[in-house]
Each structure stands twice: as structure tokens, then as C-alpha cells.
UniProtKB/TrEMBL annotation:
Upper lineage: Bacteria, Bacillati, Actinomycetota, Actinomycetes, Streptosporangiales
Cross-referenced InterPro entries: BP-dependent_transpt_permease, MetI-like, MetI-like_sf, OppC_N
Cited PROSITE patterns: ABC_TM1
Main subcellular localisation: membrane
Lipid bilayer topology: Multi-pass membrane protein
UniProt-recorded name of the protein: ABC transporter permease subunit
A single BP term in Gene Ontology: transmembrane transport
Keywords from the named record: Cell membrane, Membrane, Transmembrane, Transmembrane helix, Transport
Statement: the UniProt record of this protein carries the keyword Zinc: no
Length: 275
């Protein structure tokens, strides 16, 4: 672990991603505890520009933009982490079984995966969210199942590669059962690409949550969400541009941070990048 950290910290871009991710986590976890009520309205301070009293200004109802950004970060974190966790919990066992046992199960699973992958991620998520209904729970389910095919495909590919390794053949010759092979040899050696996939899936889910909320299929007002804030900001782009700048900037920085972190983890965890 110490060796991996030394290799990781030598890369400036992944370290930048780590800083952005930590800042995002602090905003999501600590921000709501120290900011004002994001639904509190002050009609004497509507569309107020950034000031010491309101660091990021206020919206059309006089609600503090910084408080809404902080609470919106919490919503984005929940949607990103929970949907990715759902995709991993459901997708890894399916890909593991399909890749390990193959026979008739593998073609059936992969044809279903190919069909779902024919739909773009956001289009698939929008369709599922429209069926499930607008709510944070609906967002998590829609994004989780939209990410499921990619997780199944990656897991299955890694299992097929590991299944052919010499140490697995040696364990089979030694009399190891399927359960021992899967949990002792196959699954641990598939962990690295799956960890990287999770860091890529979380920012995709953050964008997905913002998109669904922007379209009215996600978190509903008055609950703060970066997508809901962008919807409101459309009407005031000329009078109060900061209403669009702050949530847009937060989405960009959060997704950039996770993507840079994922690139760094891929380089560090890939044995072929060692020198």
C-alpha cells in the first residue's frame, strides 16, 4: 500500500483529482452542517449578487446559493455513490458467473448486455427515471441500472482473462472447488479494474443526476439539487448569471476530480505501468 501511494503521489494530475474529490466530499458532508437552511426565503434579498452575507448570492426567492450548493453536493454524492454501489452489487455477480461458467449462460447474458448498451447511458437513464417516477430513490435506481451493463461486461471480461491463468489451472489440478477458485483467485484479481470503473461511474452518475433533475425527472423542488438550480437559472442568465455559474462549475469540478483520480488509480493499479 505504501508503494502504491508513493507511485500515486508522483503524478500531479491524479493528485489534483484527489484534492478535488476530497473538497467535494467535505462540501457534501460538512457543508450542510454549517450553512443556512437552503429553503429559507428572504424576499428582501432576491437575486442578490455574491457578498459577505451571501457568498454565492441568492436566487429568485432569496434563498442562499451557497447553502443550496452544499446541500446539492450531498444529493449528488448520494446519487453517485449509491447508484454505483447498486450497479456493482448487482453487476459483479452476474459478470462473474457468466465469465466463470460460460456454456449457455455467457451468450445469453452478453446478448442482453449488448442490447442495453445499444442505448446511450443518459437516454437509458431518462427512460428508466420516467418509468420509476421523479425522486432521489428513482434517480438512484435509474442510474444504477443504466450503469449495470458496463459493470457486467467489464467483470465478465476480467474473469475470462483470469480464468485462463496458470495459477488457476494449478488450483484446479490441486482439486480446488468453484467457490475456492472464485473467491481466492478470480475475484481478487479482478478488483483493480472494478475499482477504477467505480471512480469513472460516480462522475457519470453525478452528471446523470443533474441531467434528470434539470429535466424534472429527478430530485424535485424545493429540495436543493445542482440540476434544479440550473433549471431555475435559465430565466435569469442576464440578470443573475452566478445562478448558473456556481452549479455548473461544481458539476465540472466534481466530475473532473473523479476522472483524474480514476486515471491515476488505473495507472497505479495496472502492473504493466510498473518500471
Amino acid at each position: 500500500m505504501t508503494k502504491l501511494w508513493r507511485r500515486f503521489r508522483k503524478r500531479p494530475m491524479p493528485m489534483t483529482g484527489l484534492v478535488l474529490v476530497v473538497a467535494f466530499l467535505l462540501l457534501a458532508l460538512v457543508g450542510p452542517l454549517v450553512t443556512a437552511d437552503p429553503t429559507q426565503q428572504d424576499y428582501l434579498a432576491t437575486l442578490a449578487p455574491p457578498s459577505p452575507a451571501h457568498l454565492m448570492g441568492t436566487d429568485d426567492l432569496g434563498r442562499d446559493a451557497f447553502a443550496r450548493i452544499a446541500h446539492g453536493a450531498q444529493v449528488s454524492l448520494q446519487a453517485g455513490v449509491l447508484s454505483t454501489l447498486l450497479a456493482m452489487v448487482v453487476g459483479i455477480p452476474i459478470g462473474l458467473v457468466a465469465g466463470f461458467y460460460r456454456r449457455w449462460l455467457d451468450p445469453v447474458v452478453m446478448r442482453l448486455v449488448d442490447v442495453t448498451l445499444a442505448f446511450p447511458f443518459l437516454v437509458f437513464a431518462v427512460g428508466l427515471a420516467a418509468i420509476i417516477g421523479p425522486s432521489l430513490k428513482g434517480v438512484v435506481l435509474a442510474l444504477g441500472f443504466a450503469q449495470l451493463p458496463a459493470v457486467v461486461r467489464i467483470t465478465r471480461g476480467e474473469v475470462l482473462a483470469v480464468r485462463e491463468m496458470d495459477y488457476v489451472d494449478a488450483a484446479v489440478a490441486d482439486g480446488a472447488g468453484d467457490g475456492h477458485l472464485i473467491f481466492r483467485y478470480v475475484l481478487p484479481n479482478c478488483a483493480s479494474p472494478l475499482i477504477v470503473q467505480a471512480t469513472v461511474a460516480i462522475p457519470a452518475a453525478i452528471i446523470g443526476e443533474s441531467t434528470l433533475s434539470f429535466l424534472g425527472l429527478g430530485v424535485q423542488p424545493p429540495t436543493p439539487s445542482w440540476g434544479v438550480m440550473l433549471t431555475t437559472a435559465q430565466q435569469y442568465l442576464s440578470d443573475a448569471p452566478w445562478l448558473a455559474v456556481w452549479p455548473g462549475l461544481m458539476i465540472a469540478l466534481a466530475t473532473l476530480g473523479f476522472n483524474l483520480l480514476g486515471d491515476g488509480l488505473r495507472d497505479v493499479l495496472d502492473p504493466r505501468s510498473s518500471r
